[in-house]
Every structure is written in C-alpha cells, then in structure tokens.
Amino acid sequence: MSRILIVEDDAEFGAMVGEWLDAAGHAAHTTLTAEDALRVLGEDTYDVVIADLNLHGELDGLGLCERVAAAHSDVPVIVMTAFGSLETAVGAIRVGAYDFVTKPVERGQLMLSVERAATHRALQRQVARLEERLAAKSATGSILGESPAMQRVFELVDRVAQGDTTVLVTGESGTGKELIARALHEGSPRSEGPFVAINCAALPAPLLEAELFGHAEGAFTDARGERRGLLAEANGGTLFLDEIGEMSTDMQVKLLRALQERTYRRVGGTEEMKFDARLISATNRDLEKEVAEGRFREDLFYRINVIRIPLPTLAQRGHDILLLAQAFVARAANRTGKNVEGIARDAAQRLLTYPWPGNVRELENCVESAVAMTAYDHIVVEDLPERIRRHQPVEDPIETSDPTQMPTLREVEQRYVMKVLRAVDNNKSAAARILGFDRRTLYRKLDAFEQQERPG
Question: Stretch 253-280: mean pLDDT, rounded?
C-alpha cells in the first residue's frame, strides 16, 4: 500500500481519483491548493503526489513541482492537465515532475503511472537504506578498542546481535551507546530494515508521545493531518530509545503497554496499530536506583533490561585512549587538509593521565581542537586544551610512604567498593559477587558510606 497525496482544486474530480486509488489498495488524501499540499507534506510522509497543473492560489502545479523537488526530492510527482501539449509536458518534467498524464484522465493510465511512481519511490528508499547501512558500518567500524573492557563488549554484542531480544545499553554520556546500538542492528537479521533513533531527553512528554506513536488529524491544536510515529517507521527494523531514564512516568506506562501488546494507538486515534521492531534502549542513569526511588517503573525496567551491555568509561580503557586519539587525528587532518601525522610522546602521556569525564566525545573534541591549533606535524602538549595541560594526576594515598597521609582501613574499603562499582557500571549484583558478599551487605555498606559523608 502506498500513501498518495492528491492536489486538485476540482473537489469532485479529486474525490473520484481518491476512490480509484483506495479501490486499488492505496491510501489517498486530497488537498485543494498547492499551499495546503506543502503543509501536509511537511507534517507527514507520502509516497507519491498527483497534482493538477492548473491550480488556483499563489502556486500553480509547476510551482508545486519545483517546491516538492527542492524540499521532498524523494517523492515523485505526477502532473495532470487538460492541455496536453509537448511544451507543457517538457516544462513539468524540467521542474521535477516524475510523470505526466492528460485530462480527461483514463483510470488505467493513471493507475499505471502511480504504480511506476510508487515502485520508483520504494527503490529510492531502499537505496537510501543501503547508504544508511554503509554509513552505519563505517560508524561501527570506528568503535576501536583493544582493551579487555572493550573486548568483553564486542563479544557480548556478537552473541546478542543475531537474536531479537530487547537490549539495554548503559554507560556514561559520550561512551558510544548509539554506536553499540547500531552495531547490534547491523549484525541482526533486521539489518535490511530501518534503524530509527530518538533521544527521550530531547522532547517533553506530549511531543515524545506524538513522535513515538504518531497522531490522528485534529488530535491537538497543530495536528492538521495524521502522522505516522516512529514505532511505525521502525517496522521491520530497530527502534533505539536513547536516554530512556529521562522518560516521564506517564510515557513509561504507555511504552510498557505497547511493548507488552506489540500494539499502540496514535494520539487522538482509536485504532490499534501493530508494530514489529526490536527495541534497544540506552541510559546514563542507574535505573535500579531510579526504580528503588520510584522514578522508573519496575515492570518497564525488567521489560527493557532483558540483556544489558554496560560500556566502560574511557578512563577504564587504558591505551585505547591513544588508539582512538590517533584515529581522530587522521580524521581531523583529512577533513582540514593539514599535515598532522600523530601525537608527540609528552602530549600522549597527558592524554593517558587525564580522567576524561566526557569520555570518547570529549577526546574527539580535544583532538579536533589540537589539530586545528598545531603548527607541527605532531600534536604537542601546547596544542592541548588548557584543562588537560593543567591536570595533575593525584597520587594514590595507599602508595604513599608518608604515615600521616595513609588512609584508614575504612577509607580503603570505601574506595575499593566504589572502584568495583564503577568497573561494572554500577551493577550491584556483579559488584557484590566480585566483593564476595551479598547485595544486602553491599547496600548496607553504601548506606554507611553515605551517612559518613553527610555533614553534622
């Protein structure tokens, strides 16, 4: 089924064409002016436009073709006119029309033209999807890592990708959660389908609901036409919900129902819509803590946390820092045309000892800045951002020979417990196993550490 937009100021004729299309299994929507057509195209997705050349209003059919070609170049336009001269046909094709039919329109001829245009549109979308896959493969190929921490991630991705299981990717901001989600998609049987991503923190709850589920015409003030949601867009592929921990509790309820039933309703709609997409979520929050404190639904947590892939911080990846930095140097040098080949030893040492609170994203920004600043063929210390040049590594008090600086046994225990938690991405069960006691004991110790740090 294709979605067809008819632009015809003769309402009776437009309705008849719509009936032909509906009878052929398509979904037709009719507008009377070019201006209305452009608004509708901006609000929703259509596969083919059929437009009369002789439209009333500021824009005629030729003007509409030009605007559609500029703003929606992947949507083929079929033009209709009662003046079937060669000059008119050439003019329409020249400004971007896909095909040309004359009035009085023969039903069979129009249906044939629509089928060709819809096939053309489908092929274009397939090519775009393949290009997206190639881009995604390039992105996943850029997930460099030789450290044990990243090798464990790669092994887990390889094991999980072939299934259809829901995955939760956790880690600090800038650790590459979306790249891992794309790698899971590309390694899955759904790789031919779309990869649809949305950042749940970027939209307020009402807009997020409309983006995910779509909306019916008139569902709210500006909903002048119906809109497909991202659940529909992701059919046959993967839906990636980034920063799912930021989702409101009302939206959590609606998402949980959709995941349980594999159906949803558009905002303002009554029809139950089915969807078939693999869900991958990501968060930089401790969702177990969010559940315990009532900010995240426990039932949704268990639904999205079937398999968890925790990503290490950049500081936990050792010499991966230099591996990534060198790749970023090559990329930035190629983009800017500068002859920068690598990183001098002193600058590399500064990179290794800096804690990287912004993780890989911060490292990439740092290297791009250094390539832009350097006057040499290698990045030197003076090219690095000031925060990195000024950073002084703190000596571990346990290693000191000064008795006045040695920590208490309780302080050593607290530091080690917190180090283990960071290493396992705050997974309490994994941390308890490493530390050699149960989760209840771990929570008791964490409460004691927190009380000790409270003033008074």
Answer: 89
Largest CA distance in the chain: 99
- Tokens, residue 421: 């938690």
Q: Please give the structure tokens belonging to residue 132.
A: 């997206």
Relative to beta strand 263-264, strand 273-274 is: antiparallel
Name 126's Cβ contacts closer than 8 Å, sequence gap at least 6.
none
Instruction: Give the three-state DSSP class for 296.
Output: coil
Phi, psi for 156 (deg, rounded to 5): -70, -40
C-alpha to C-alpha distance for 293 and 30, rounded to whole angstroms: 51
Where do we find the tokens 């921990």? Answer: 245
- Which stretch of DSSP H or E encloses residue 4? strand 3-7
Beta-strand runs (E) in 206-313? 214-215, 227-228, 238-242, 263-264, 273-274, 278-283, 307-310
Give the pLDDT band (50/70/90) at residue 255.
very high
pLDDT surpassing 70 at residue 404: no
Q: Range with the lowest mean pLDDT among 5-14, 83-92, 108-117, 276-285?
A: 83-92
For residues 383 and 362, give the distance between their C-alpha atoms in angstroms, rounded to a whole number: 15
Buried b (16+ CB within 10 A) or exposed e, 103-120: eebeeeebeebbeebbeb
* CA-atom Rg of the chain in angstroms: 29
CA dist., res. 37 & res. 183, Å (int): 38
Q: Using CA atoms, how far apart are residues 102 and 85, in angstroms rounded to an integer?
A: 9
The secondary structure of 139-199 as a DSSP string is HHHT----SHHHHHHHHHHHHHHTS---EEEE--TTS-HHHHHHHHHHTSTTTTS-EEEEE
Tokens of 398: 């346990």
Note the pLDDT tens digit of each residue in 190-228: 999 999 999 999 888 888 988 899 877 555 555 555 678
Token look-up 């032909």 returns 20
Cβ 64 vs Cβ 6: under 8 Å: no
Q: What is the pLDDT of residues 21-56, one digit of tens each?
A: 999 889 999 999 999 999 988 888 899 999 988 888
The CA–CA distances, whole Å, from 411 to 397, 405, 417 equal 10, 12, 10
Please give the Cα distance from 396 to 417 (Å, whole number).
15
- With a threshold of 0.70, does the pTM exceed it? no
Closest CA to 378 of 311, 330, 419: 330
